[in-house]
Design a protein that fits this description.
334 residues; 1 helix; two-stranded parallel ribbon; mainly beta; Leu-rich_rpt; Leucine-rich repeat, LRR (right-handed beta-alpha superhelix); 4% helix; 17-stranded mixed beta sheet; disordered C terminus; (rape) hypothetical protein
């Protein structure tokens, strides 16, 4: 924590709840306390921290909305650092060597839109649990392997120049990788046995899906370039939520897992064939604006729903139909 006796303070600065509240002026000879553990400074106005800044004792660094282009020079010992939040630091171009940050658990770089590369030193962050890099729109380079043992949640949605599917950890439970240039899902994802949520929407270069883990429960491929879905998807016994909305080149749907609770395929304007074998009560099916689906196909979907003797909700061509054998009536909402 900081104290009011430190040389860091002048007439333009004050402290509240451990946070520095200032955006106006930093004196050239400014010095931070040498054993500083917490630094929370929103909108930090300089391009880097001062030469006499010593981060060795830092536990938490929070400098969101800063003017930073880089943090510091060299490779200080960061063995106490657990949390680093630099979100919305628009001008940040360079990340420091974090080889010694062996206790780092959370790294938030969301909206760091000048950041191009993640350094290789990130491969050593084995305590890291959360990596937030949403909307790092210039990011292109990742280390070839980053098997971070503790990593659970990764959000790289909006990294619109990223071409490589990240290979971070076999322990990830949630991965958001929408709006990128990724073209394929690697076979290695089959070793991610704890993955439950996979978000791949708005990836226009992603044409096919061959490798998906059986344990995934939520799969979002909406508004992607998906042209076909592999028949092996029916083996995904954990899949409950599948979003294919806006996949305009998708022509056919293979047999899907019978326990699926939610299927959204609205605006799939090329979709002609659907294989529906659902055995889950209260499943929701959405085929709004699938104009290529023939009446025969629509009847087959409805017939299959009745044969299961369970209640279903079906949306087709801007009509919502609710039907149930227990309450045999049809409601249509135009």
């Amino acid at each position: 924590m900081l104290s009011k006796g430190c040389r860091i303070f002048d007439s333009s600065m004050y402290i509240k709840d451990g946070m520095i509240k200032t955006i106006e002026y930093i004196p050239e000879d400014m010095e931070f306390p040498p054993r500083l553990r917490l630094l929370h400074w929103d909108a930090y106005p300089s391009k880097s921290l001062p030469p006499k800044f010593y981060p060795e004792h830092l536990v938490e660094l929070n400098m969101q909305e800063s003017q930073l282009e880089k943090l510091w020079e060299g490779t200080p010992r960061l063995t106490n650092l657990k949390k680093m939040e630099l979100m919305e630091s628009w001008h940040l171009k360079e990340l420091p060597d974090l080889s010694n940050a062996t206790k780092l658990e959370r790294l938030d770089l969301a909206w760091c839109q000048s950041l191009v590369e993640i350094p290789f030193s990130f491969s050593n962050l084995h305590k890291q649990k959360v990596l937030a890099m949403f909307a790092c729109s210039k990011l292109q380079v990742l280390p070839s392997t980053m098997n971070l043992a503790s990593l659970k949640v990764v959000n790289m949605a909006g990294c619109s120049r990223l071409r490589k599917f990240p290979d971070f950890s076999t322990n990830i439970s949630s991965l958001k990788l929408s709006n990128t240039l990724v073209e394929q899902v690697p076979a290695s994802i089959q070793h991610w046995t704890r993955l439950r949520f996979l978000e791949l929407s708005y990836n226009w270069k992603l044409k096919t899906l061959k490798n998906v883990l059986e344990g995934v429960s939520h799969l979002n491929l909406s508004y992607s370039g998906i042209e076909n879905v592999s028949d092996c998807i029916k083996a995904l016994q954990g899949l409950q939520h599948l979003n294919l909305s806006g996949c305009r080149k998708l022509a056919t749907l293979p047999e899907l897992p019978p326990q699926l609770m939610f299927l959204s395929a609205n605006d799939c304007e090329s979709l002609k064939s659907v294989s529906c074998h659902f055995h889950t009560p209260n499943a929701q099916l959405n085929f709004t604006n699938c104009f290529e689906l023939s009446q025969q196909q629509q009847r087959a979907i409805i017939q299959q729903s009745f044969l299961t003797e369970r209640k279903y909700r079906l949306v087709t061509d801007n009509r919502m139909i609710i039907f149930s054998l227990r309450m045999p009536k049809i409601k249509v909402f135009l």
